[in-house]
Design a protein that fits this description.
The complex is a heterodimer of chains A (about 210) and B (about 575).
Chain A: H1 2-13, H2 18-30, H3 34-48, H4 53-70, H5 74-87, H6 93-104, H7 108-119, H8 137-149, H9 153-164, H10 171-184, H11 191-194, E1 197-199, E2 210-212
Antiparallel strand pairs in A: 1-2
Chain B: H1 5-11, E1 15-18, H2 23-26, E2 31-38, E3 44-51, E4 54-57, E5 71-74, E6 82-91, E7 98-103, E8 117-118, E9 120-128, E10 131-138, E11 148-156, E12 161-169, E13 182-183, E14 190-195, E15 198-213, E16 216-228, E17 246-248, E18 253-265, E19 271-282, E20 288-291, E21 303-311, E22 314-321, E23 325-332, H3 388-395, E24 403-407, H4 419-423, E25 427-432, H5 435-444, E26 450-452, H6 460-466, E27 472-478, H7 483-492, E28 499-506, H8 516-527, E29 531-538, E30 546-550, E31 568-569, H9 570-574
Parallel strand pairs in B: 6-8, 12-16, 24-25, 24-27, 25-26, 27-28, 29-31
Antiparallel strand pairs in B: 1-23, 2-3, 3-6, 4-5, 6-7, 9-10, 10-11, 11-12, 13-14, 14-15, 15-16, 17-18, 18-19, 19-20, 21-22, 22-23, 28-30, 29-30
Helix pairs in contact in B: 7-8
Classes of the chains: A mainly alpha (about 210), B mainly beta (about 575).
């Protein structure tokens, strides 16, 4: 609360400083006050749109993140990710979240497309605030995951293997990667393999990424 | 105007405190519109409104309007209702932080809600006759959203916080919506219902009755006006209720904070609003003593104050910020001297507003109407943006007691096309999807027939039946935003069943890049037999935004416009010279 109070006072002193607006939004997010956070991040984005594109883009994704955390507003989330991409298409983060949005709905082709688009813009500088982007590897992860479901199984196997060799992958993602390499390693063309199902691994702390053949 | 009262307060030795309920209890959705009450022992009680939505409100250049516009309530997509819950809190008297809180359990008195807004909204909390009350507006018990203030007694102890009684305050004559009545803390069961001119009502908790509604039974108590003043301060946006009314000073003065709303259109024609507040002080006889100039608390477009109290030498005010955050602001009382105050001896200046175009107003002394009509000499003021109301009367020779269907009601008077007609005895139905418009109509044009409804999906035959309109209606206005929606609304009207004498259709050609709306609307209306008599009406000489049509069956003497691409400056079209 100390930091929140500090930035609130700074805001009152200058409500038109976009960076203070963003910092105040961040402090609200950290204590679970997503609605308040959204207001301040949106103000920051509006104030910065013609001055600091990366920060603006980050703040737009922050508005998305608040509603993503709230849940049950997925069409709005989709629209807001599209807003971020339209504003700044040369960064990977929004593509990742679009890919995740579609894979959650088993819209594999769309999800695959966004992972491919995101991979075009790897190795960008880190954004100022956390917007649930673990790293560029996650786009490859999504591509590996979705390529399986659109019938590109060899590509999928290859990508899972490639992922295993990337450093700095979050442990919960590495568990999935290794699980899938093991499961998909069996060479078979049987219908059973094609008529796969998704499962929610009970020991997985993130999204549903485990492919069961 | 002070656009940042908080800064002034802090620089004068005050403080600001965020009021927080833990995020996991509210799913990160909005907290706002806090009310305050100081107990005799010095404890400060607050009621924090929890809205189960997040308000997305694009400000400044509105570069990032969201999927649903610049101003959107982000409710769950599988539940369209806008739900309010309330938390009673004890604030630390020194820091004003929330020390403890409990959600008010209303289950004892709840009946199944049947309208879009659920729960008791914009609560003020106070103690009368040793009973702790919350009082706000509830709109969920009738399927038309009729709203009434409800006075509810709450039992609050360490472990329980239960709404024990719920009494709905009825009014006579009947209205659609009552809200923002300001409780007078030192006068039990009295409220300032209207601040300008002043009207004080007394509710009668003993005069109880019941009313059966679709989903249950309501406990009703009556109210009566006990003080009514005639003197009205001339203000551009009126004065609406906001904080409670508290004793102020040692001479029996009373103070409150009022609010006012300035609706406007963004360049993209989307409706929006600025909220302002003022301090209002009455003397002991309820004469207005002082009225501050409007101010904003923290510079946001939407702010709303429900709390005001005196603590030592300070005022404590509490308010919501964009419906998403709640604050308590402490300000030394002496800081009031640094505010600007209205001077009633001179004309009060208008608040600066952002509008697309100020209405072109017919001046009966200097303007000579090209097509005069019966009774024109009695018209002293019109309201439309581009003389649409005068055009309708010209077409129908000054008809009295006509009928209208107003799609896109907007503001009840400012730039409104039916306000003048209503003054001439017309009646009709005015649709708008914006609840804020409904609020404004209820407060400013309560005799109008405002219907909160989506014009694109309305069953117009049913609408006409239920509002006493026949198959023939004198005037149809089509003006919703954006222009694509206006076109969808037009397509939804069964023109083979309903007939209109005059139509004004807003196509917004000047911002409609692909010309679809103008082109398609002309095809539809001309194929239905309407004659385009004025095309590309513009409030200036380069903003063509509207077409005007007549039905030759009912309107004679208007020639059709031949140059459909030409821009018609409205004043040139309507006024000689």
């Amino acid at each position: 609360m100390d930091k929140l109070n500090k930035y609130l006072k700074a805001y009152v002193n200058d409500p038109l400083d976009p960076y203070i607006n963003a910092q105040l939004g961040e402090e609200y997010e950290l204590i679970g006050q997503g609605a308040a956070a959204l207001s301040y991040f949106l103000r920051a984005a509006e104030l910065l749109h013609d001055k600091d594109p990366e920060m603006t883009y980050c703040c737009l994704l922050k508005t998305w993140k608040q509603i993503h955390n709230t849940t049950r507003r997925e069409q709005w989330e989709l629209g807001q990710l599209q807003t971020a991409v339209a504003y700044f298409p040369q960064r990977p983060e929004a593509y990742l979240h679009l890919s995740l949005h579609h894979s959650k709905r088993e819209e594999w082709k769309e999800s695959y497309m966004y992972s491919c688009l995101g991979l075009l813009y790897q190795n960008k500088s880190k954004l100022p605030y956390n917007i649930n982007y673990p790293g560029d590897y996650m786009l490859l992860f999504q591509k590996a995951f979705t390529s399986w479901y659109i019938g590109q199984r060899q590509e999928s196997k290859k990508l899972w293997s490639q992922l295993e060799n990337i450093k700095d992958i979050l442990p919960e993602h590495m568990v999935i990667i290794q699980h899938n390499i093991k499961t998909l390693g069996k060479e078979t063309d049987s219908l059973q393999e094609i008529n796969f199902k998704m499962s929610v691994g009970e020991n997985l702390t993130t999204e549903k990424y485990s492919i069961i053949t | 105007m002070i656009d940042n009262l908080a800064k002034l307060a802090i620089n004068s030795g005050g403080s600001i405190t965020p009021l927080i309920i833990p995020g996991e209890l509210i799913d990160g959705t909005g907290l706002c519109n806090v009310s305050l009450f100081k107990e005799e022992n010095g404890d400060i009680i607050a009621n924090i409104r929890h809205v189960h939505y997040t308000l997305y409100h694009s400000e400044f250049d509105q570069k990032f309007n969201c999927k649903w516009g610049v101003l959107s309530y982000l409710n769950p997509e599988d539940d369209i209702h806008l739900i309010t819950g309330n938390y009673l809190c004890k604030l630390n008297p020194d820091t004003l932080e929330v020390d403890s809180f409990q959600k008010i359990d209303t289950t004892k008195n709840d009946i199944t809600p049947i309208w879009d807004f659920h729960g008791l909204e914009d609560v003020r909390t106070f103690r009368w006759d040793d009973k702790l009350y919350v009082c706000g507006v509830r709109r969920d018990v009738k399927d038309n959203g009729e709203g009434r203030m409800e006075l509810c007694e709450v039992e609050w102890s360490k472990n329980i916080c239960i709404e024990q009684t719920r009494d709905r305050i009825e009014v006579d004559p009947h209205t659609y919506l009552e809200k923002n009545w300001m409780p007078i803390f030192d006068m039990p069961y009295h409220f300032v219902k209207w601040a300008n001119p002043l009207e004080i009502v007394k509710v009668n908790p003993e005069d109880k009755s019941t009313q059966t509604v679709k989903k249950g039974t309501l406990n009703i108590i009556s109210s009566e006006t006990v003080i009514k003043k005639d003197d009205k301060i001339n203000l551009p946006l009126g004065l609406r209720g906001s904080s409670p009314v508290i004793l102020f000073g040692d001479k029996g003065d009373r103070m409150c904070i009022t609010h006012e709303t300035d609706f406007f259109h963004h360049p993209g024609m989307m409706k929006d609003a600025h909220y302002y507040h003022r301090f209002l002080i009455w003397d002991k006889d309820w004469n207005v003593k002082s009225l501050s100039k409007p101010f904003k608390f923290m510079g946001a477009m939407i702010e709303f104050c429900c709390g005001l109290l005196v603590q030592d030498d300070n005022l404590i005010m509490s308010y919501g910020y964009q419906d998403n955050a709640a604050y308590a602001l402490k300000m030394p009382i002496k800081t009031l001297n640094e505010l600007e105050w209205e001077d009633f001896s001179t004309e009060i200046e208008n608040i600066e507003t952002t509008t697309w175009h100020e209405p072109l107003i017919y001046n009966p002394l200097t303007d000579k109407l090209k097509v005069p009509f019966e009774g024109l000499e009695n018209i002293t003021k019109n309201y439309s943006q581009c003389y649409q109301d005068m055009f309708v009367l010209s077409c129908l020779n000054g008809k009295r007691n006509g009928t209208y269907l107003e799609i896109g009601a907007g503001h009840p008077y400012y730039g409104n096309n039916t306000a003048l007609l209503e003054e001439l005895g017309w009646r009709g139905a005015s649709l708008d999807i914006n609840p804020a418009s409904g609020q404004s109509w209820e407060e400013n044009r309560p005799n109008g027939n405002f219907i909160l409804q989506d014009a694109i999906t309305t069953d117009y035959i049913q609408l006409c039946k239920s509002n006493g309109l026949s198959r023939y209606i004198d005037y149809l206005q089509l003006d919703i935003d954006p222009s694509y929606n206006t076109l969808q609304a037009l397509k939804n009207i069964p023109l083979d069943v309903l007939e209109f004498g005059v139509i004004t259709y807003e196509h917004d050609f000047y911002i409609d890049k692909d010309e679809t709306c103008r082109k398609e609307s002309r095809e539809i209306l001309q194929n239905a037999g309407y004659i385009l008599v004025a095309s590309n009406i513009s409030p200036d000489k380069n903003s063509p935004y509207e077409d005007w049509y007549i039905n030759p069956k009912y309107v004679k003497g208007y020639k059709n416009e031949e140059k459909f691409e030409k821009i018609l400056f409205a004043k040139d079209y309507m006024i000689n010279g």
